[in-house]
Protein: Homoserine dehydrogenase
Organism: Symbiochloris irregularis
Amino acid sequence: MGLQKRFSGRSLGPSIPDQIAAGPSSPVRGSQDQCRSEENPMRSSSDIEVRKVAIGLVGAGLVGAALLDQLRAQAAALSRYPLRLELCLVALCTSRKQVLGSIQEPVSLTNWKERLDKGIMNDLLHFQQHLSHIATKHLTIVVDCTASSFVPGLYQRFLSSGVHVVAANKQLGAGKLSEYKAVLNCVSLPHSAPGLPGPTFRYEATVGAGLPIISTLQSLLLTGDTVHLIEGVFSGSLSFIFNSLGTTSFSQAVRDAQSRGYTEPDPRIDLSGMDVARKAVILARECNLELSLEDVSVESLVPQDMQQLKPAEFLEALHQLDSGMSKRIHAAHKHKQVLRYVALLDVGQRQCKVALKEYDQGHAFGSLSGSDNVFAFHTQRCMESELSAVALQPTDLVTL
Ligand SMILES: NC(=O)C1=CN([C@@H]2O[C@H](COP(=O)(O)OP(=O)(O)OC[C@H]3O[C@@H](n4cnc5c(N)ncnc54)[C@H](OP(=O)(O)O)[C@@H]3O)[C@@H](O)[C@H]2O)C=CC1
Ligand SMILES: N[C@@H](CC=O)C(=O)O
């Protein structure tokens, strides 16, 4: 497979802060012309007032904390021409605590941890009402950086009150089709307050972390291409694990992937193929296929009895999988092949499979290293040489 386009490095594609700063005028689920640029070439940069945007963040774990760091680091750049934005953290919560601020008195991006520690008990409905109230006057965005299946249940409330939703959480995109469609229906609503754009729903970080995978797919489809097949290594953690085997045991590789922040809060979500299956469903729906998780053929690397264990017990028992995995690796090496956990979405056939497969080391999937992701789009226009993207994920940072 030829790699036509190869992206590598840290800040690839639209990260969550980019999605926030880009605002509702860039291609997303939502009406495209809801918000026109306020930029006027006849005005000088100093004439343009800084626009305050309210941000609510649900989930301040690995990804949420990295987002807050990025917002703090970007604050000066965002305030300058042409963006002229000031992002004000007006609400922040974890599963236990929450802290509420206002546009006038936002939660500080430097000591938010201390504020959360002293915060009140989490009450997501109150959190939602607080943001919806602010949205009557200011452009307001809620960012879901949890892995919770409960939080997406609030997206419709947020959107119908004019709050834009940005999700790193895959639960909605790969969840019940009816709920997914109901949320997409909300993005065509106009805002009740004059001058504010109708709500949008953005979810670039749900697939490929910091890589512009969803926007690339949307671009291909919007410009009239036909996508036949999407395949690749969609998981940073499974990529890292299978790139580490040979020099380290399976159980150690899983622990290393977890300590580097590549895995889901419960690594079994990755090892069972569920996280990859979710990403495949999100891409399938983007291609207008009405697929759900039940339609995906999934090879799990976690035996059924280990699925019942508590997370800590599972990590204790993980070494039991070492010898079985070691046999599979040796068998692959005998054929001069390597193991890769891949997804294969056949759009034309409406079929999706995620599984551990053998690849030649010269194959684009076989030559990955670290926590590389690779996505190959086989399309009508790119039949001969597929469009692929490789992400080199940083080892010390979560990519958004
Ligand atoms: N790791 C990565 O590189 C990437 C991850 N993602 C996705 O980002 C999401 C977050 O991952 P990660 O940061 O690693 O997870 P963490 O477990 O580190 O953090 C999750 C956060 O969500 C909070 N939370 C959980 N349930 C609720 C709830 N009901 N209400 C409010 N807050 C809640 C947790 O609170 P508490 O602290 O109290 O437990 C915690 O702060 C996942 O959906 C993941 O798939 C997407 C792209 C890349
Ligand atoms: N657990 C995921 C993190 C991003 O979605 C992965 O391993 O890729």
User: Anything to note?
Assistant: The pocket of NDP (ligand 1) is lined by residues 58-64, 93-96, 122, 124, 145-148, 150-151, 168-170, 205, 209, 261, 264-265, 398-399 (CB under 6 Å). The first strand starts at residue 51 and ends at 58. The two ends are 27 Å apart (CA to CA).
